[in-house]
């Protein structure tokens, strides 16, 4: 594959196949399938966004909007499952003498209800004409954009560079953010920018090879550690909400406080662990292939 259009179209086709392969499992409520569909959706959206001049924007921009909403619906379903599993695992490691009240029951009921509601929304989305139209568009070769016929090595590295510049800007904002909620939000933006840079590098790897794959790995590591940090922050919010409900019902909130403190510590540890991956991602040495 020599042209930018060929490389990006091949990537889009592969991710579309992965999305479609996951759909039967998603309909059955298989959380692994939901994860696979979510990842394929994110990869598609990132490719169409970063490499916008390669394919016809009049076609791909509306597709990106639909992928964003589909990804949100899938994400809500997946997150409810993952969070419930993580909270139950955290509770299972507690000394039984320190578990006061129906904590596990509240966690199960809350996260199961969220998962079922999210599954209803997923099912409605997959049954909609919008999804059928989205799949039909992605399943065919997308019309070329102004840079489709140019050599992949002349176009893709420069476009990937933009995605990495976006990560650099997010890092600057996070470095200046005040500790607490402001920094948590800034680090979440860093995570999203790292994911975009990773997928941009994965697309370019088809023509650039190993250097792009190395960059993708660095971005992936940032995504992993900041994902752990973000998940811990989200679980803290859920525990605060459950504690408030328990208090209104006259139950002890002692164990919720313990679990919240453990999640807070986990988030801080993940943030500390992110320092090295962030430095490695910011190092310009691995980006020479971007020009």
TrEMBL record:
Superkingdom of source: Bacteria
InterPro entries, per database record: CHAD_dom, CHAD_dom_sf
Provenance organism: Cellulomonas humilata
Record domain CHAD: where: 1-283
Region (Disordered) location: 267-291
Entries under Gene3D superfamilies matching the protein: CHAD domain (1.40.20.10)
Biased composition (Basic and acidic residues): 280-291
Protein name, as recorded: CHAD domain-containing protein
């Amino acid at each position: 594959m020599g042209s930018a259009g060929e490389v990006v179209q091949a990537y889009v086709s592969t991710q579309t196949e992965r999305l479609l392969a996951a759909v039967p499992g998603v309909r059955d409520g298989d959380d692994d399938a939901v994860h696979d569909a979510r990842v394929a959706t994110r990869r598609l959206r990132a490719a169409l966004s970063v490499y916008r001049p390669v394919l016809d924007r009049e076609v791909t921009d509306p597709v990106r909007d639909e992928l964003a909403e589909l990804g949100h619906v899938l994400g809500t379903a997946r997150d409810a499952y993952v969070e419930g599993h993580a909270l139950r695992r955290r509770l299972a490691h507690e000394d039984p003498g320190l578990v006061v009240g129906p904590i596990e029951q509240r966690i199960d009921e809350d996260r199961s209800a969220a998962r079922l509601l999210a599954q209803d929304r997923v099912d409605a989305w997959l049954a909609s004409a919008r999804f059928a139209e989205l799949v039909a568009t992605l399943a065919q070769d997308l019309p070329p954009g102004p840079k489709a016929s140019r050599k992949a090595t002349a176009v893709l590295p420069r476009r990937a560079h933009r995605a990495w510049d976006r990560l650099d800007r997010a890092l600057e904002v996070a470095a200046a953010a005040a500790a607490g909620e402001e920094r948590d939000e800034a680090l979440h933006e860093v995570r999203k920018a790292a994911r975009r840079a990773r997928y941009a590098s994965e697309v370019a790897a088809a023509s650039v090879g190993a250097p792009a794959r190395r960059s993708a790995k660095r971005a992936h590591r940032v995504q992993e550690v900041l994902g752990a940090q973000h998940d811990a922050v989200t679980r803290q919010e859920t525990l605060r909400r459950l504690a408030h409900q328990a208090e209104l019902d006259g139950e002890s909130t002692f164990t919720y406080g313990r679990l919240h403190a453990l999640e807070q510590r986990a988030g801080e540890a993940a943030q500390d662990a992110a320092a090295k991956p962030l430095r490695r991602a910011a190092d310009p040495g691995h980006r020479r292939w971007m020009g």
